């Protein structure tokens, strides 16, 4: 399924469906792992998927960020990314679905996992 190919990927997922998809997304992974986070104590309502990643150094961090930028641009779905020297925090939500999690977010998280795995393979 293309990330942005049809309306179905932008339909809001229920909490049960999200949790089931997160089990598959995180299965047998140490890093990255994703969790469902509700916006609390902010002006936003809704929820997002969130993951934190750690890298060996600044160069590897930017290699990863560049690869995620390419995937996000191609999908027309752009996560919020906060980074420091060797750490990256990524959140994804579907803004045009009232800041809720959709299949588009799950697919982007899968693509981010893939990019992380590719970078990890290059490191060895």
TrEMBL record:
GO terms for biological process: tetrahydrobiopterin biosynthetic process. It catalyses: (4aS,6R)-4a-hydroxy-L-erythro-5,6,7,8-tetrahydrobiopterin = (6R)-L-erythro-6,7-dihydrobiopterin + H2O. GO terms for molecular function: 4-alpha-hydroxytetrahydrobiopterin dehydratase activity. The keyword Lyase applies. Keywords: Lyase. It is an enzyme of class 4 (lyase). Pfam families: Pterin_4a. Its EC number is 4.2.1.96. Belongs to the pterin-4-alpha-carbinolamine dehydratase family. This is 4a-hydroxytetrahydrobiopterin dehydratase.
